[in-house]
């Protein structure tokens, strides 16, 4: 069953491989596999040459980092924060 939100999709991607270090590109490429994107989310942004969902994903990832769920290892590298 596909995720019902972009946030849920991102969390699922990290939880499916809890020890993996993901680049943003890998996260972007995985999202359509786990979440049904709307046509608006797939459309290219007028100002930036990328689909809207990629901008939304970066915003969600930043929130998950602040909440301590995801850890930022480098500019383009994230992982699920180890528990404990």
Question: Explain this structure to me?
Answer:
This protein has one domain: Winged helix-like DNA-binding domain superfamily/Winged helix DNA-binding domain (Arc Repressor Mutant, subunit A), CATH 1.10.10.10. Helix content is 49%, strand content 13%. The chain is globular and about 40 Å long. The model has no long low-confidence stretch (mean pLDDT 95).
How many domains in all? 1
Number of helices: 4
> What gross morphology would you assign?
globular
Instruction: State the CATH superfamily name.
Output: Winged helix-like DNA-binding domain superfamily/Winged helix DNA-binding domain
Q: Mind telling me the CATH class?
A: Mainly Alpha
- Unreliable stretches: none
Query: Biggest sheet: strands, sense, closure?
Result: 3 strands, antiparallel
The N- to C-terminal Cα distance equals 30 Å
Strand portion: 5-15%
Helicity level:
40-55%
**Gyration radius, in Å:** 13 Å
The largest beta-sheet arranges its strands as: 1-3-2
> How many DSSP E strands?
3
Write a brief structural summary.
This protein has helices at 6-16, 24-34, 39-42, 52-66; strands at 22-23, 70-74, 77-80.
Mind sketching the topology for me?
Blueprint lengths: L5 H11 L5 E2 H11 L4 H4 L9 H15 L3 E5 L2 E4 L4
Antiparallel strand pairs: 1-3, 2-3
Helix pairs in contact: 1-2
Descriptors for this entry?
single chain, 84 residues, alpha+beta, Arc Repressor Mutant, subunit A, 4 helices, 49% helix, globular
